[in-house]
């Protein structure tokens, strides 16, 4: 039990600490706060309920938009004349079928047969007022244009005003006592909000009369013996004023979208105290604080990731520079090695040639047994390398001059062969040695260059990827700043047209938006510095 109490006390002590370091508990409206929560950053918390109430109040000041079609009376008159002509044609067809002729004499109208035809026609066409004047005109084949024109004139007279539907939607009902009327050529005309606001004019709603009410008033204005005519004409009365609910919603939304009810919290201000009940306003403040803390944490992670990427890019650049320096050093070292190797080769070759050319003739004596002075014993001697001379010991009188000349010729031949050998060595060995050194040097340079290009290519790929990620981090920030600036411009434009009751609220919203822009810009500087 003591251990459980200790755990409970630890949790109670740690809760405020966690609340101050970014841990915001999830509460529902009606719960009680388990600890005091203080905001570490400034907050602007929107009161949704009050905002909605203010918007509804402002929307009630925006009049509904109505479409007015003046040509509706033309359509109604055309229908009336068409119905009139159709009825006359039916009546005359029955006369033709019954009496076998299109027109009758005036005396025939009093016959029972004609009276029966008239009664049957009225039963079949109850909605048409078959008056005595029309019967006489149609039966005798005379024109009924005067009566038809009179009916059409009465219809036009009753449709001279604004006739609306009997039932209006809540959108059309709400609003002030005036309505915005837009005159249009036809019911299918496409209309946008800007055009409607430019072409509309305000009209008192009391001049709008419902269709059913107008028909009843028109019928009741006729005497009882003309009720059939009144009902016939009233049946063609149609509405010419229709509410445009969609444009009305758009007009009210554009007027009310800038209205907000918000409460400002400074850094260090208490949002909720321990054991205090959670209201909708407090819940909204806690939710916004949680979102802001989460956003700040995400920005910190992005900044850390960006710093790591920059460090990685710097390391790759450093490796590329080191590889390039090593390549330059290797190229310079290989050049010096090639030059030194060539010099050493040339020196060695010249030394060999000089030794071949300047080495003196060495005579090798072969010990022989003592012989008499008269005997001629041949001896072997060596002159230089590659020449062997056979000589004999004899008395001075025994060596003729011809043999001395032969010895000279042989020496000259040996020197000539040595020079030829030296020329062959110079012409064959030196170019081969040079080509071998050049091939070795070029192969080494090509290998090092390929390795350097691969290193640079990998570094460029990593740098490109890092730059792409940096652009992805920078783009949302620039978009947020642009949205904030547009929001401020809109609010400033609407502030001039608002009443005094909304000016303070909009000013507070503008100040909060400017503060948000400064915070974003300061974060941007920290991120990219």
Describe the structure.
It is a single chain. By secondary structure, this protein is α+β, with helices and mostly antiparallel strands. It has three domains: 2-51 and 258-291, no CATH class; 65-255, no CATH class; 299-365 and 378-529, no CATH class. It has helices spanning 2-20, 48-59, 72-99, 112-124, 132-140, 145-158, 170-173, 193-199, 211-220, 227-234, 245-256, 280-358, 401-495, 500-528, and strands spanning 37-38, 43-46, 65-68, 162-164, 178-183, 201-204, 208-210, 241-243, 262-265, 270-272, 377-382, 388-393. It has a four-stranded mixed sheet. Helix 9 (211-220) runs antiparallel to helix 10 and helix 12 runs antiparallel to helix 13. The model is unreliable at 1-22 and 361-400 (pLDDT under 50).
Highlighted features:
64% helix; 14 helices; 529 residues; four-stranded mixed β-sheet
Q: What does the main sheet amount to?
A: 4 strands, mixed
Number of alpha- plus pi-helical segments? 14
Q: Tell me the domain tally.
A: 3
Strand residue content: 5-15%
User: How does the helix and strand content classify structurally?
Assistant: alpha+beta
Please report the total strand number as a whole number.
12
Averaging pLDDT over every residue, what do you get? 77
Fraction of residues in helix: 55-70%
CA-atom Rg in angstroms: 59 Å
Order of helices and strands: HEEHEHHHHEHEHEEHHEHEEHEEHH
Span from first to last CA?
Answer: 55 Å
**Lateral arrangement of strands in the main beta sheet:** 6-5-3-8
Q: What is the overall shape?
A: elongated
Low-confidence spans: pLDDT under 50, at least 5 residues?
A: 1-22, 361-400
